[in-house]
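Annex B. Sample input.
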Amino acid sequence: MKIIRSDFLKNAGKLFSGSLAAQAIGFGAIVFLGRMYSPEEFGELDIFMKMAVVLVAIAGLRYEVAIVVEDDTKTAQDITRLSLILNLFIALVVLLVVISFKSSIASFFKLSHPNILYALPPAIWLLSSTDTLVNWRNRAREYGVISTNRIATSLSGVGYKLAHPFLAVVSGNGLVIGQILGQVVALVHIVFKLPFSLFQTSSDAIRTVAKKYKSFALFSSPAALLNILAVNMPWFMIATFDGQAATGHFGNAYKLTYLPMSMLALALGQVFFEKIARIKSDKKEAAAMSHQLVSLMFWAALIPVVILAVWGDQIAPVVLGDQWHEAGIYIQITILFYFSMFLTTSFSSAFSTYNKLNFQLLYNLAFLIFTSCALYFGYTIGGSTRVALAWFTIVGAVLRILVLNYFFVLFGKNLIAKTIFALLFTGILIYIGFGIKEGF
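Annex B, continued. Sample output.
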Protein backbone atom coordinates (compact mmCIF):
# COMPACT_ATOMS: atom_id res chain seq x y z
CA MET A 1 0.00 0.00 0.00
CA LYS A 2 1.42 3.33 -1.05
CA ILE A 3 0.33 6.30 1.03
CA ILE A 4 1.08 8.72 -1.78
CA ARG A 5 -1.25 6.78 -4.11
CA SER A 6 -4.14 6.59 -1.66
CA ASP A 7 -6.55 9.20 -0.36
CA PHE A 8 -4.63 9.28 2.94
CA LEU A 9 -2.39 12.21 2.10
CA LYS A 10 -5.21 13.94 0.24
CA ASN A 11 -7.40 13.93 3.34
CA ALA A 12 -4.51 14.75 5.63
CA GLY A 13 -3.62 17.57 3.26
CA LYS A 14 -7.06 19.11 3.76
CA LEU A 15 -6.58 19.08 7.51
CA PHE A 16 -2.99 20.22 7.34
CA SER A 17 -3.80 23.11 5.01
CA GLY A 18 -6.24 24.47 7.57
CA SER A 19 -3.82 23.80 10.40
CA LEU A 20 -1.01 25.44 8.45
CA ALA A 21 -3.10 28.51 7.71
CA ALA A 22 -4.20 28.76 11.35
CA GLN A 23 -0.63 28.28 12.51
CA ALA A 24 0.63 30.86 10.05
CA ILE A 25 -1.86 33.36 11.45
CA GLY A 26 -0.79 32.62 15.01
CA PHE A 27 2.92 32.55 14.16
CA GLY A 28 2.71 35.82 12.28
CA ALA A 29 0.84 37.43 15.14
CA ILE A 30 3.28 36.26 17.80
CA VAL A 31 5.92 38.53 16.29
CA PHE A 32 3.73 41.43 17.40
CA LEU A 33 2.18 39.83 20.49
CA GLY A 34 5.64 39.12 21.92
CA ARG A 35 6.27 42.85 21.86
CA MET A 36 2.77 43.87 23.05
CA TYR A 37 2.45 41.56 26.06
CA SER A 38 4.89 40.68 28.85
CA PRO A 39 6.23 37.20 29.70
CA GLU A 40 4.06 37.36 32.84
CA GLU A 41 0.89 37.87 30.78
CA PHE A 42 1.85 35.00 28.49
CA GLY A 43 2.52 32.89 31.57
CA GLU A 44 -0.93 33.65 32.94
CA LEU A 45 -2.52 32.61 29.64
CA ASP A 46 -0.47 29.41 29.54
CA ILE A 47 -1.42 28.31 33.05
CA PHE A 48 -5.10 29.12 32.40
CA MET A 49 -5.15 27.11 29.16
CA LYS A 50 -3.17 24.22 30.61
CA MET A 51 -5.67 23.87 33.44
CA ALA A 52 -8.43 23.94 30.82
CA VAL A 53 -6.94 21.30 28.51
CA VAL A 54 -6.20 18.97 31.45
CA LEU A 55 -9.87 19.05 32.43
CA VAL A 56 -11.04 18.84 28.80
CA ALA A 57 -9.20 15.51 28.58
CA ILE A 58 -11.82 13.98 30.90
CA ALA A 59 -14.78 16.28 30.24
CA GLY A 60 -16.45 13.74 27.94
CA LEU A 61 -14.90 10.69 29.68
CA ARG A 62 -13.32 9.95 26.27
CA TYR A 63 -16.62 8.83 24.76
CA GLU A 64 -15.85 11.27 21.94
CA VAL A 65 -13.14 8.87 20.72
CA ALA A 66 -15.78 6.15 20.28
CA ILE A 67 -17.59 8.36 17.76
CA VAL A 68 -14.95 7.47 15.16
CA VAL A 69 -14.69 3.79 16.17
CA GLU A 70 -18.45 3.05 16.07
CA ASP A 71 -19.66 1.58 12.74
CA ASP A 72 -23.37 2.38 13.08
CA THR A 73 -24.23 6.02 12.29
CA LYS A 74 -27.21 6.29 14.63
CA THR A 75 -25.22 4.88 17.53
CA ALA A 76 -22.39 7.31 16.77
CA GLN A 77 -24.92 10.15 16.98
CA ASP A 78 -25.98 9.01 20.44
CA ILE A 79 -22.35 8.83 21.54
CA THR A 80 -21.96 12.43 20.37
CA ARG A 81 -24.95 13.48 22.47
CA LEU A 82 -23.65 11.62 25.51
CA SER A 83 -20.27 13.31 25.21
CA LEU A 84 -21.85 16.77 24.99
CA ILE A 85 -23.95 16.11 28.10
CA LEU A 86 -20.87 15.06 30.03
CA ASN A 87 -18.98 18.16 28.83
CA LEU A 88 -21.62 20.42 30.39
CA PHE A 89 -21.69 18.42 33.62
CA ILE A 90 -17.91 18.61 34.12
CA ALA A 91 -17.91 22.36 33.39
CA LEU A 92 -20.52 22.89 36.12
CA VAL A 93 -18.49 20.82 38.59
CA VAL A 94 -15.41 22.94 37.83
CA LEU A 95 -17.44 26.10 38.45
CA LEU A 96 -18.30 24.87 41.95
CA VAL A 97 -14.62 24.08 42.61
CA VAL A 98 -13.54 27.54 41.45
CA ILE A 99 -16.12 29.25 43.64
CA SER A 100 -14.92 27.25 46.65
CA PHE A 101 -11.14 27.28 46.15
CA LYS A 102 -10.33 30.22 43.88
CA SER A 103 -7.82 31.88 46.22
CA SER A 104 -5.96 28.66 47.00
CA ILE A 105 -5.62 27.71 43.32
CA ALA A 106 -4.44 31.20 42.36
CA SER A 107 -1.88 31.24 45.17
CA PHE A 108 -0.49 27.82 44.27
CA PHE A 109 0.15 28.82 40.64
CA LYS A 110 1.16 32.38 41.53
CA LEU A 111 -1.64 33.91 39.43
CA SER A 112 -1.72 37.67 39.88
CA HIS A 113 -5.38 37.89 38.78
CA PRO A 114 -7.38 35.18 40.65
CA ASN A 115 -10.71 36.20 39.04
CA ILE A 116 -9.45 34.80 35.76
CA LEU A 117 -10.38 31.37 37.12
CA TYR A 118 -14.08 32.19 36.69
CA ALA A 119 -13.51 31.95 32.95
CA LEU A 120 -12.24 28.37 33.31
CA PRO A 121 -15.63 26.52 33.29
CA PRO A 122 -16.90 28.17 30.06
CA ALA A 123 -13.51 27.59 28.44
CA ILE A 124 -13.71 23.88 29.34
CA TRP A 125 -17.23 23.60 27.95
CA LEU A 126 -16.30 25.34 24.71
CA LEU A 127 -13.13 23.33 24.12
CA SER A 128 -14.61 19.93 24.99
CA SER A 129 -17.81 20.43 22.99
CA THR A 130 -15.83 21.54 19.95
CA ASP A 131 -13.57 18.48 20.26
CA THR A 132 -16.61 16.20 20.41
CA LEU A 133 -18.10 17.65 17.23
CA VAL A 134 -14.75 17.60 15.46
CA ASN A 135 -14.69 13.85 16.07
CA TRP A 136 -18.12 13.58 14.46
CA ARG A 137 -16.91 15.56 11.45
CA ASN A 138 -13.82 13.35 11.30
CA ARG A 139 -15.99 10.22 11.31
CA ALA A 140 -17.98 11.66 8.41
CA ARG A 141 -14.69 12.55 6.63
CA GLU A 142 -15.67 16.21 6.53
CA TYR A 143 -12.05 17.31 6.57
CA GLY A 144 -12.79 20.59 4.83
CA VAL A 145 -15.11 21.65 7.67
CA ILE A 146 -12.46 20.78 10.28
CA SER A 147 -9.84 22.69 8.32
CA THR A 148 -12.01 25.78 8.01
CA ASN A 149 -12.84 25.59 11.71
CA ARG A 150 -9.19 25.88 12.66
CA ILE A 151 -8.72 28.93 10.47
CA ALA A 152 -11.82 30.65 11.88
CA THR A 153 -10.69 29.92 15.44
CA SER A 154 -7.24 31.35 14.85
CA LEU A 155 -8.43 34.45 12.99
CA SER A 156 -10.97 35.48 15.61
CA GLY A 157 -8.73 34.78 18.61
CA VAL A 158 -5.61 36.42 17.20
CA GLY A 159 -7.60 39.38 15.90
CA TYR A 160 -8.85 40.21 19.37
CA LYS A 161 -5.45 39.71 21.02
CA LEU A 162 -3.95 42.25 18.64
CA ALA A 163 -6.78 44.71 19.16
CA HIS A 164 -7.11 44.44 22.95
CA PRO A 165 -4.32 46.89 23.94
CA PHE A 166 -6.11 49.57 21.93
CA LEU A 167 -9.54 48.94 23.52
CA ALA A 168 -9.48 51.25 26.53
CA VAL A 169 -12.96 50.17 27.66
CA VAL A 170 -11.92 46.50 28.10
CA SER A 171 -9.72 45.44 31.01
CA GLY A 172 -8.07 42.12 31.83
CA ASN A 173 -5.56 39.92 30.06
CA GLY A 174 -6.27 40.32 26.35
CA LEU A 175 -4.53 37.04 25.59
CA VAL A 176 -7.02 35.10 27.72
CA ILE A 177 -10.06 36.98 26.41
CA GLY A 178 -8.95 36.40 22.81
CA GLN A 179 -8.44 32.70 23.45
CA ILE A 180 -11.98 32.30 24.76
CA LEU A 181 -13.45 34.35 21.92
CA GLY A 182 -11.72 32.09 19.41
CA GLN A 183 -13.26 29.02 21.03
CA VAL A 184 -16.74 30.56 20.89
CA VAL A 185 -16.30 31.00 17.14
CA ALA A 186 -14.96 27.44 16.84
CA LEU A 187 -18.02 25.90 18.52
CA VAL A 188 -20.54 27.98 16.58
CA HIS A 189 -18.85 27.05 13.29
CA ILE A 190 -18.46 23.31 13.95
CA VAL A 191 -22.08 22.88 15.09
CA PHE A 192 -23.49 24.69 12.03
CA LYS A 193 -25.52 22.44 9.69
CA LEU A 194 -25.08 19.21 11.61
CA PRO A 195 -26.96 16.42 9.75
CA PHE A 196 -28.86 15.40 12.90
CA SER A 197 -30.57 16.98 15.90
CA LEU A 198 -28.41 17.12 19.01
CA PHE A 199 -31.41 16.66 21.31
CA GLN A 200 -33.53 14.10 19.45
CA THR A 201 -32.79 10.94 21.42
CA SER A 202 -33.86 9.03 24.53
CA SER A 203 -32.33 8.41 27.92
CA ASP A 204 -32.36 4.65 27.16
CA ALA A 205 -30.27 5.19 24.03
CA ILE A 206 -27.79 7.32 25.98
CA ARG A 207 -27.49 4.68 28.70
CA THR A 208 -27.00 1.95 26.09
CA VAL A 209 -24.03 3.63 24.40
CA ALA A 210 -22.57 4.63 27.76
CA LYS A 211 -22.58 0.96 28.79
CA LYS A 212 -21.30 -0.29 25.43
CA TYR A 213 -18.24 1.96 25.51
CA LYS A 214 -17.71 2.11 29.27
CA SER A 215 -14.10 0.97 28.80
CA PHE A 216 -13.35 4.41 27.35
CA ALA A 217 -14.54 6.02 30.58
CA LEU A 218 -12.83 3.43 32.81
CA PHE A 219 -9.48 3.18 31.02
CA SER A 220 -9.08 5.74 28.24
CA SER A 221 -10.31 8.68 30.30
CA PRO A 222 -7.83 8.22 33.20
CA ALA A 223 -5.10 7.47 30.64
CA ALA A 224 -5.86 10.67 28.73
CA LEU A 225 -5.85 12.65 31.98
CA LEU A 226 -2.47 11.21 32.95
CA ASN A 227 -1.07 11.86 29.46
CA ILE A 228 -2.23 15.48 29.40
CA LEU A 229 -0.94 16.02 32.93
CA ALA A 230 2.44 14.59 31.98
CA VAL A 231 2.74 16.69 28.83
CA ASN A 232 1.67 19.86 30.62
CA MET A 233 3.46 19.22 33.90
CA PRO A 234 6.40 21.52 32.96
CA TRP A 235 4.05 24.54 32.91
CA PHE A 236 2.62 23.69 36.33
CA MET A 237 6.02 22.95 37.86
CA ILE A 238 7.63 26.09 36.38
CA ALA A 239 4.76 28.25 37.62
CA THR A 240 5.06 26.77 41.10
CA PHE A 241 8.87 26.86 41.39
CA ASP A 242 9.79 29.85 39.21
CA GLY A 243 6.71 32.04 38.59
CA GLN A 244 4.76 33.45 35.66
CA ALA A 245 7.66 35.03 33.75
CA ALA A 246 9.51 31.72 33.38
CA THR A 247 6.20 30.06 32.48
CA GLY A 248 5.71 32.62 29.73
CA HIS A 249 9.20 31.99 28.35
CA PHE A 250 8.60 28.26 28.31
CA GLY A 251 5.17 28.67 26.74
CA ASN A 252 6.49 30.74 23.85
CA ALA A 253 9.39 28.32 23.39
CA TYR A 254 6.73 25.63 22.96
CA LYS A 255 4.83 27.77 20.46
CA LEU A 256 7.92 28.15 18.31
CA THR A 257 8.84 24.45 18.45
CA TYR A 258 6.23 21.77 19.01
CA LEU A 259 3.12 23.77 18.13
CA PRO A 260 4.01 24.00 14.41
CA MET A 261 4.89 20.29 14.37
CA SER A 262 1.71 19.39 16.23
CA MET A 263 -0.43 20.79 13.44
CA LEU A 264 0.99 18.25 11.01
CA ALA A 265 0.85 15.48 13.63
CA LEU A 266 -2.80 16.23 14.40
CA ALA A 267 -3.79 16.26 10.72
CA LEU A 268 -2.00 13.00 9.97
CA GLY A 269 -3.18 11.45 13.23
CA GLN A 270 -6.87 12.12 12.60
CA VAL A 271 -6.76 10.57 9.14
CA PHE A 272 -4.56 7.71 10.39
CA PHE A 273 -7.07 6.96 13.16
CA GLU A 274 -9.94 6.59 10.69
CA LYS A 275 -7.81 4.49 8.30
CA ILE A 276 -6.15 2.16 10.82
CA ALA A 277 -9.55 1.45 12.41
CA ARG A 278 -10.65 -0.04 9.07
CA ILE A 279 -7.54 -2.12 8.26
CA LYS A 280 -6.34 -3.12 11.73
CA SER A 281 -6.87 -6.83 11.06
CA ASP A 282 -4.59 -6.72 8.01
CA LYS A 283 -1.14 -6.61 9.65
CA LYS A 284 0.74 -6.37 6.38
CA GLU A 285 -1.20 -3.34 5.16
CA ALA A 286 -1.22 -1.68 8.58
CA ALA A 287 2.55 -2.12 8.97
CA ALA A 288 3.30 -0.82 5.47
CA MET A 289 1.17 2.30 5.94
CA SER A 290 2.60 2.99 9.41
CA HIS A 291 6.23 2.68 8.32
CA GLN A 292 5.70 4.96 5.34
CA LEU A 293 4.01 7.52 7.57
CA VAL A 294 6.72 7.58 10.27
CA SER A 295 9.43 7.95 7.59
CA LEU A 296 7.53 10.85 6.04
CA MET A 297 7.18 12.57 9.42
CA PHE A 298 10.83 12.08 10.38
CA TRP A 299 12.25 13.59 7.20
CA ALA A 300 9.69 16.44 7.20
CA ALA A 301 10.70 17.63 10.68
CA LEU A 302 14.41 16.75 10.82
CA ILE A 303 15.99 19.93 9.41
CA PRO A 304 13.77 22.36 11.40
CA VAL A 305 14.56 20.37 14.57
CA VAL A 306 18.32 20.56 13.96
CA ILE A 307 18.14 24.29 13.24
CA LEU A 308 16.22 24.97 16.46
CA ALA A 309 18.52 22.74 18.53
CA VAL A 310 21.56 24.69 17.36
CA TRP A 311 20.32 28.24 16.80
CA GLY A 312 17.20 28.44 19.01
CA ASP A 313 18.83 30.94 21.38
CA GLN A 314 19.31 33.34 18.47
CA ILE A 315 15.99 32.70 16.71
CA ALA A 316 13.65 33.46 19.64
CA PRO A 317 14.80 37.07 20.28
CA VAL A 318 14.58 37.83 16.55
CA VAL A 319 11.01 36.51 16.34
CA LEU A 320 9.62 37.63 19.70
CA GLY A 321 11.78 40.57 20.73
CA ASP A 322 14.81 41.17 22.94
CA GLN A 323 13.00 40.22 26.18
CA TRP A 324 12.63 36.59 25.02
CA HIS A 325 16.25 35.34 25.06
CA GLU A 326 15.48 32.84 27.82
CA ALA A 327 12.76 31.33 25.64
CA GLY A 328 15.45 30.59 23.05
CA ILE A 329 17.49 28.66 25.62
CA TYR A 330 14.42 26.62 26.51
CA ILE A 331 13.95 25.81 22.81
CA GLN A 332 17.43 24.33 22.56
CA ILE A 333 16.89 22.25 25.69
CA THR A 334 13.48 20.77 24.87
CA ILE A 335 13.42 20.43 21.07
CA LEU A 336 14.47 16.75 21.00
CA PHE A 337 11.67 15.81 23.39
CA TYR A 338 9.15 17.58 21.17
CA PHE A 339 10.62 15.82 18.14
CA SER A 340 9.95 12.45 19.77
CA MET A 341 6.51 13.64 20.86
CA PHE A 342 5.73 14.71 17.28
CA LEU A 343 6.59 11.25 15.96
CA THR A 344 4.49 9.55 18.64
CA THR A 345 1.33 11.67 18.56
CA SER A 346 0.02 10.56 15.17
CA PHE A 347 0.08 6.91 16.21
CA SER A 348 -1.41 7.23 19.70
CA SER A 349 -4.84 6.15 18.40
CA ALA A 350 -3.39 2.61 18.31
CA PHE A 351 -4.29 2.29 22.00
CA SER A 352 -7.99 2.64 21.15
CA THR A 353 -7.89 0.83 17.81
CA TYR A 354 -6.23 -2.30 19.23
CA ASN A 355 -8.09 -2.12 22.57
CA LYS A 356 -4.94 -1.56 24.61
CA LEU A 357 -6.54 0.98 26.91
CA ASN A 358 -5.26 -0.74 30.07
CA PHE A 359 -1.68 -0.55 28.77
CA GLN A 360 -2.25 3.10 27.82
CA LEU A 361 -3.29 3.81 31.39
CA LEU A 362 -0.17 2.18 32.82
CA TYR A 363 2.13 3.88 30.32
CA ASN A 364 0.70 7.33 30.95
CA LEU A 365 0.95 6.82 34.71
CA ALA A 366 4.62 5.83 34.32
CA PHE A 367 5.25 8.81 32.03
CA LEU A 368 3.69 11.22 34.52
CA ILE A 369 5.63 9.81 37.47
CA PHE A 370 9.05 9.68 35.76
CA THR A 371 8.85 13.08 34.06
CA SER A 372 7.46 14.77 37.18
CA CYS A 373 10.30 13.32 39.22
CA ALA A 374 12.78 14.53 36.59
CA LEU A 375 11.41 18.06 36.86
CA TYR A 376 11.25 18.00 40.65
CA PHE A 377 14.81 16.78 41.11
CA GLY A 378 15.97 19.16 38.39
CA TYR A 379 14.70 22.01 40.56
CA THR A 380 15.67 20.69 43.98
CA ILE A 381 19.12 19.41 42.98
CA GLY A 382 19.95 21.47 39.90
CA GLY A 383 18.29 24.58 41.22
CA SER A 384 17.06 26.08 37.94
CA THR A 385 14.43 25.78 35.24
CA ARG A 386 17.10 25.03 32.64
CA VAL A 387 18.36 21.98 34.55
CA ALA A 388 14.81 20.80 35.27
CA LEU A 389 13.90 20.98 31.57
CA ALA A 390 17.06 19.11 30.57
CA TRP A 391 16.16 16.22 32.87
CA PHE A 392 12.57 16.31 31.62
CA THR A 393 13.74 16.16 28.00
CA ILE A 394 15.98 13.14 28.50
CA VAL A 395 13.44 11.09 30.44
CA GLY A 396 10.48 12.12 28.28
CA ALA A 397 12.23 11.41 24.97
CA VAL A 398 13.30 7.92 26.07
CA LEU A 399 9.74 7.04 27.15
CA ARG A 400 8.26 8.42 23.92
CA ILE A 401 10.66 6.40 21.78
CA LEU A 402 9.81 3.23 23.70
CA VAL A 403 6.05 3.62 23.26
CA LEU A 404 6.49 4.47 19.56
CA ASN A 405 8.21 1.12 19.10
CA TYR A 406 5.37 -0.57 21.01
CA PHE A 407 2.86 0.90 18.54
CA PHE A 408 4.73 -0.59 15.63
CA VAL A 409 4.69 -4.03 17.24
CA LEU A 410 0.89 -3.69 17.28
CA PHE A 411 0.88 -2.65 13.62
CA GLY A 412 2.81 -5.78 12.70
CA LYS A 413 6.45 -4.77 12.20
CA ASN A 414 8.88 -3.30 14.75
CA LEU A 415 10.72 0.01 14.37
CA ILE A 416 14.04 -0.88 16.00
CA ALA A 417 16.29 -0.43 12.95
CA LYS A 418 14.73 2.90 12.00
CA THR A 419 14.93 4.11 15.61
CA ILE A 420 18.68 3.45 15.84
CA PHE A 421 19.29 5.14 12.48
CA ALA A 422 17.16 8.17 13.45
CA LEU A 423 18.98 8.70 16.75
CA LEU A 424 22.44 8.47 15.19
CA PHE A 425 21.62 10.62 12.18
CA THR A 426 19.92 13.34 14.23
CA GLY A 427 22.82 13.43 16.70
CA ILE A 428 25.40 13.74 13.91
CA LEU A 429 23.53 16.61 12.25
CA ILE A 430 23.23 18.52 15.55
CA TYR A 431 26.93 17.98 16.25
CA ILE A 432 27.80 19.33 12.79
CA GLY A 433 25.45 22.27 13.36
CA PHE A 434 27.15 23.29 16.58
CA GLY A 435 30.48 22.98 14.81
CA ILE A 436 29.32 25.38 12.12
CA LYS A 437 27.93 27.75 14.77
CA GLU A 438 31.19 27.78 16.72
CA GLY A 439 33.12 28.35 13.50
CA PHE A 440 31.27 31.59 12.95
